[in-house]
């Protein structure tokens, strides 16, 4: 009660603004972000007519819901004739953006936004850098629409003692619905101190998890767009137990040597659309793990990094289910894998109904790979009697160059061989030797592959 009273008090200090201004702000930012337009034209000169309507996976894809989220932002706009969005500027709640800690101010601003009945636009102003400790932006909120406009830069505290309470998350949105987060600004995880202390960099250090820069947990109807996310402590952007997400126009960057800095991670989430994004980090560009259904990644440019991954799945004898994944129109440049499915031995469950199509590889090691003997630990992994079943995977229109001789590697499980694997119109050549024939090969174990169209190289 006291909290609500205080919050509304703060709101009344905040600047009032109607949605028209907010929308205008939005448009300006979209126009300013020319890099994403360039990226589209350069990477996909010939693909713009191909749109996957998801009809292959009837029953798991709720097309209506996808449409709903597409129109969500418009709906936010439609409601404003009667309901004005309150503008909540973090500076009005005490944030300074001068290199001192602004955590309390952001929390107060969030409370005001979250408790504002008619919806709110929480603004992080331009040309300031706001230093934040770990923050939990909790719902459920009174507001049906919250827009978080990040125009300036948010930077993570690099004092490890700030993360004692929750070492896994820096910025987390928990139980929110109808949130739009955008603005063209930057979220900087300031991860150097974490990378230096990683056991993957310094073998004498214990293996510990580091925070994810931006997490959405247990949330619904989200739009995350027009943001730069950089140098995360570990994963950059994670959707966990989320439903109906549109993530687009994101630029995610970290050094090639930064450990475990996945770009976008999807776990236990459904109806997730990721599009028009450029991701270059030290780990997976996109990783999709257990409990994820109906995930589409479209128009993605990756590199450096470990490529686009489904998995890892089945670690520590766990049960994993992933289905309805489509990666359409991607360009991978200099990554250590292209499109990968990775499972540990000893797991169970299924990874099924997966399509990788219209993918360009440029100097990619392992462009197409299923690795059912994945083992990402110091000790070698023991042979086990079960595996996550990999089934119904289509690779279609994949071309370009491989950095290694093994352009295709299907290392499937002996106990549950891969089923329903299709290669259609595949043209992979060795990097630097594009004119010569037969320099790359497909290494295929415990799998039967159906070839359609021209497939090179082929399994023998
Ligand atoms: C995979 O697709 C097939 C064919 O459309 C469908 O029958 C099956 O239920 C799907 N499997 C899962 C786990 O979604």
UniProtKB/TrEMBL annotation:
SUPFAM superfamilies: Pectin lyase-like. Pfam families: Glyco_hydro_28. Gene3D superfamilies: Single-stranded right-handed beta-helix, Pectin lyase-like. GO terms for molecular function: polygalacturonase activity. It is found in: Secreted, Cell wall. Its EC number is 3.2.1.15. The active site is at 306. Keywords: Cell wall, Cell wall biogenesis/degradation, Glycosidase, Hydrolase, Secreted, Signal. The keyword Methyltransferase does not apply. The keyword Iron-sulfur does not apply. InterPro entries: Glyco_hydro_28, PbH1, Pectin_lyas_fold, Pectin_lyase_fold/virulence. It comes from the Eukaryota. GO terms for biological process: anther dehiscence; carbohydrate metabolic process; cell wall modification involved in abscission; fruit dehiscence. Residues 1-16 form the signal peptide. It catalyses: (1,4-alpha-D-galacturonosyl)n+m + H2O = (1,4-alpha-D-galacturonosyl)n + (1,4-alpha-D-galacturonosyl)m. Its main location: secreted. PANTHER family: PTHR31375. Belongs to the glycosyl hydrolase 28 family. This is endo-polygalacturonase.
């Amino acid at each position: 009660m006291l909290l609500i009273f205080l919050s509304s008090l703060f709101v009344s200090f905040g600047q009032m603004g109607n949605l028209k201004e907010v929308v205008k702000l939005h448009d300006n930012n979209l126009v300013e972000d020319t890099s994403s337009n360039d990226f589209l034209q350069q990477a996909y000169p010939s693909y713009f007519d191909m749109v996957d309507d998801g009809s292959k996976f009837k029953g798991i894809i709720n097309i209506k819901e996808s449409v709903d989220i597409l129109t969500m932002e418009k709906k936010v706009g439609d409601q404003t004739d009667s309901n004005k969005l309150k503008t909540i500027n973090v500076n009005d709640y005490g944030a300074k953006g001068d290199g001192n800690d602004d955590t309390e101010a952001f929390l107060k601003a969030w409370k005001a936004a979250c408790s504002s009945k008619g919806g709110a636009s929480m603004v992080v102003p331009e040309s300031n850098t706001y230093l934040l400790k770990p923050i939990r932006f909790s719902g459920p909120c009174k507001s049906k629409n919250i827009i978080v406009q990040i125009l300036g830069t948010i930077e993570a505290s690099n004092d490890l003692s700030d993360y004692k309470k929750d070492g896994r998350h820096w910025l987390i949105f928990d139980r929110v619905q109808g949130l739009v987060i955008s603005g063209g600004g930057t979220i900087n995880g300031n991860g150097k101190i974490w990378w230096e202390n990683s056991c993957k960099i310094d073998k004498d250090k214990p293996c510990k998890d580091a925070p994810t820069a931006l997490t959405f947990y247990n949330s619904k109807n989200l739009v995350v767009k027009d943001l730069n996310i950089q140098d995360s402590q570990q994963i950059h952007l994670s959707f966990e137990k989320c439903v109906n997400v549109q993530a687009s126009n994101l630029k995610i960057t970290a050094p090639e040597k930064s450990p475990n800095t996945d770009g976008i991670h999807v776990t236990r989430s459904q109806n997730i659309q990721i599009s028009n994004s450029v991701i270059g980090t030290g780990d997976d560009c996109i990783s999709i793990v257990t409990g994820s259904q109906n995930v589409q990644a479209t128009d993605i440019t990756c590199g450096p990094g470990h490529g686009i991954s489904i998995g890892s799945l089945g670690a520590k004898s766990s049960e994993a289910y992933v289905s309805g994944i489509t990666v359409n129109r991607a360009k991978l440049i200099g990554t250590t894998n292209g499109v990968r499915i990775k499972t540990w031995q000893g797991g169970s469950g299924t990874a099924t109904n997966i399509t990788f199509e219209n993918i360009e590889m440029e100097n990619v090691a392992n462009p197409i790979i299923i690795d059912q003997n994945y083992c990402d630990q110091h000790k070698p992994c023991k042979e086990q009697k079960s595996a996550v079943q990999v089934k119904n995977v289509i690779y279609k229109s994949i071309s370009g160059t491989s950095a290694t001789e093994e352009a295709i590697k299907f290392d499937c499980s002996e106990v549950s061989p891969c089923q329903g694997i299709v290669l259609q119109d595949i043209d992979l050549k060795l990097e630097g030797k594009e004119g010569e024939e037969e320099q790359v090969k497909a290494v295929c174990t415990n799998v039967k592959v159906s070839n359609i169209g021209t497939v090179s190289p082929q399994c023998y």
